[in-house]
Amino acid sequence: MNLNIFVQHFINALSLGSLYGLVAVGYTMVYGILRLINFAHGDIFMLGAYFVYFATIVYKLPWAVGVVIAIIGTTICGLLVDRIAYKPLREAPRISALISAIGVSFFIENFAVVVFTGMPRPVVQPPILMQPIVLPGDVRLIPLGILVPIVAFVLVGCLLWLLYRTKPGLAMRAISFDIETTRMMGVSVNRIIALAFGLGSALAAVAGILWALRYPRVEPFMGMTPGIKAFIAAVFGGIGSVPGAMIGGLILGFVEIMSVAFFPTLSGYKDAFAFCLLILILLFRPTGLLGERLEDKI
Amino acid sequence: MQRIRNLILTIIAVVLFAFFLDKAPELLNGYWQRILNLIAINAILALSLNLIYGITGMFSLGHAGFMAIGAYVSALLVLSPAQKNAMWILEDIYPWLLNVNAPFIASIIIAGIVAAFFGLIVALPVLRLGGDYLGIATLGFAEIIRILITNTARLTNGSLGLKGIPAYTTLFMSWGCLGVVLLCMVCMLRSNFGGVLRAVRDDEVAAKMMGINTFKVKVIAFTLGCFGGGLGGALMGNLITTIDPRMFMITQTYNILMIIVVGGLGSVTGSIIGSVLVTTMLEWLRFVENPITIGSINIPGIPGMRMVIFSLLLIIVIIFRREGIMGMREFSWDIFFPKAKPKPKHEKSNHESVLEVEDIVLRFGGLSAIDGLNFNIRHGQIVGLIGPNGAGKTSAFNVISGFYKPTSGTIKFLGKSIGGLSPDEVCKAGMSRTFQNIRLFGHETVLQNVMTGARIRQKYSWWMSLMPFVFTDVLREDSAVKAQAMNLLEQLGLSEFAEEKASSLPYGAQRRLEIARALATRPKLLLLDEPAAGMNPQESDELMKFIRRLRDEFDLTILLIEHDMKVVMNVCDYIQVLDQGIHIAHGTPEEIKANPRVIEAYLGHENTDKETDQIIERHYAKKEGQK
Questions:
Q1: Arithmetic mean of pLDDT, A103-108
Q2: A159, B67, B462, B519 — which has fewest CB within 10 A?
Q3: Best of A27, A279, A284, A295 to disrupt the B interface by mutation (most B CBs within 10 Å)?
């Protein structure tokens, strides 16, 4: 393995990992607040990719406009999901909301099949992102591969600022400790929950757009596997922790890319790594890398 | 009488249905026969997932994986060597596999057993997780199975799948299997072991205190459920004759989940109704995906529409009627007949020192919850454990009853050391307790709550409950336990509530029920955690009499935590006082009443504050000295 190939793998792992991380952040915020696995999150990610596809390729809008439309559109979808399928179930046993989430995920996927057809559609990448930059040592870098992690880290940085330096962020952290007490402190809990869904969906939209550019195509079920893997990344990093989600995503990205890079015979089992990693972490450190321990009070 | 009537009605219904199945090939076309077959298979799958999730409360999303195992095992056993030779194109089949063959019936049973074996392997590590994590881990496991099947082409023919599986699944076969599964499951759920499963779902902590090894119970339920998954998968493969790994994606699990949610989580009847509705609807909905021609107008089919409608229905059901059609209720012939209420008797132990607690220390990190607790309880005593909030009383209970492992110190119960035993083992040794925040099995009847407490005294094993007509011990022991439970309820004035849901009882009755349930384990020592909490003066007067009566009638020794000083002073023979984890005093009620440290611990008088500070200082100085 020469330097060039190693750098390629490294960049690949970094960008795949940061995409997992971006999606995982959405899972971790919602789970931290509502203790709900938002199964539909992967499909929200898929919607982000479709929005940008239609805006830029079908309606020929400039990319910048397309991206903004996609983020806004996806965020609205995320909010609608919360409003319609989860909000009526806030007082219900958690399992009801979970089944509702499965239903929503199912619905969005199949609705996409009805509206967009099940055929995968190719995405035309803007040439500027694909022009390789040649570095000394014959290392060639595709700008897209560098753009993905940069965008991801900047966005997660902004999110952390929002969570730890602003009032809504404080409210969000308070809700994850005790929703009832936070409500009594005069916080409009439903609005903060909606904010978490909105932020998560916006990040998922960005991840969806970048994903569509990286594997240049969109299809209705594209969110399923990355969604589940991102959730695993969130559990791995410690569910409820935003930096944990990002770290979990990166580790998962590196494990997937590097193991196949070094042991090509394992490529058929690539999708199983995430689950093995999950079962291992749950057995040895059920709270994940950065998670906190929750105890059942007797 | 009632039982015989119901049995006859059931037999008539089964015979009529068998007659119908016999005539079905003439009455119904192939399409409807297939739906009828699918209903039976889906019902088996739904029942098995319901056993895991609805009844035992383990959120599993791995059913598709176990179906896949079952389908492949059965298919590999029934395919002929010639068929196998023709099918493995990309890679050669393992030579040993080529000639492995078994008759259909044997193949589906082996399929179930292999799936159950995998289930057991998964259960051992994964069931230590709770709730959502379990769901994700089982989902992950199902995916791993699918990936393994795709990648082990020499064994499974990889992504090409298996074709031409003989269509052995006839109506009699699928419904026959369902009949057997249903019979075993109903018998098990009606036995006291079934009650234990539901108890684990409702409150695992309380179930442990009833002497139940909850982990073992969960592993059993999970493994049995996986057997059902494998059986269902095998029947499915032999019905549609083609299987490949893509058939067993998470969607498959969702379909089964949909059935049990629609029918009602935890209801066997619900699973059957759910299978009929969901299967029929899924097939019927195919029309929206097929092009329709009405006269000269051609309406093209809409691919994906079927699942859109299906998922919308799932969301609507969960939002507007989340308990499903049946909730947790079951079908019974009794609903057609007016009710007749049955009417239902009790027995008495001796050791000088019942409980000896020596130098118990319990630390969480740097924080000492209990720092050196010593006391003895003699047979027949009623001992009070008192102290202000945060004194470590409930922690002491949790250590004694096995929920917490003490950092150091020994606990001897009836002369034997019980330090480090788990709650269920402590219970088996003869100790039972109640909880500060009442922990009943809320969805169960009052009677079943008490019967769960009696499970540890029953001798029959869980697997006998699948075939109670063979192992009649099950019926005999269950009816004995039921009679004893009724008797207990009578003694505690709860018999009028016997058939009501535990969570629907008034507060005071719930407290008494918790005590009844604890008594059902036949304890020598009973720990009561704030029995008078939330009672008015009159109720607590009754409680005092009740506690003394308990001791005399059941030959008990009682340790109780209580804040109501009137109760403590009147009912206790001896009192132990804790403050901030430190054992500050002990004595008879009169001595305690006059003890300045105790008064100060409760009231915090200034002149005595110093004294306690000195005690605490001396306590730690002594400890330092020891080190």
A1: 92
A2: B462
A3: A279
Q: Judge whether residue B497 has pLDDT over 70.
A: yes
Domains in chain A, number:
1
Give B147→chain A minimum CA distance, Å.
6
* B545 to chain A, closest Cα gap in Å: 27
Q: What ranges do the domains of chain B cover? A: 2-291+301-336, 435-522
pTM of the model: 0.79
Give residue B237's identity as a one-letter amino acid code: G
Interface-testing mutation among B49, B134, B146, B308, with chain A (most A C-beta atoms within 10 A): B308
Give B-chain residues touching A271 at CB under 8 angstroms.
143, 147
Please provide the size of chain B in residues. 627
Tally Cβ neighbours within 10 Å of residue B300. 9
Fold entry, domain B2-291+301-336: ABC transporter involved in vitamin B12 uptake, BtuC (1.10.3470)
Name the pairing type of β-strands A121-122 and B353-364.
unpaired
Helical H segments across B503-595, by residue range: 507-520, 537-554, 565-571, 589-594
> Per the structure block, which two tokens stand in for A239?
């569910």
Q: B304 and A296: CB-CB below 8 Å?
A: no
Cβ of B141 within 8 Å of Cβ of A113? The answer is no
Q: Which residues of A touch B302 (CB under 8 A)?
A: 114
Q: Which fold has domain B435-522?
A: Rossmann fold (3.40.50)
Tokens of B332: 């019974």
- For residues A274 and A68, give the distance between their C-alpha atoms in angstroms, rounded to a whole number: 32
Q: In this structure, are residues B577 and B393 in contact, taking their beta carbons and an 8 Å threshold?
A: no
* Burial environment of residue B227 by CB neighbours within 10 A (0 to 12, 13 to 18, 19 or more): buried
What number is the ipTM of this complex? Answer: 0.85
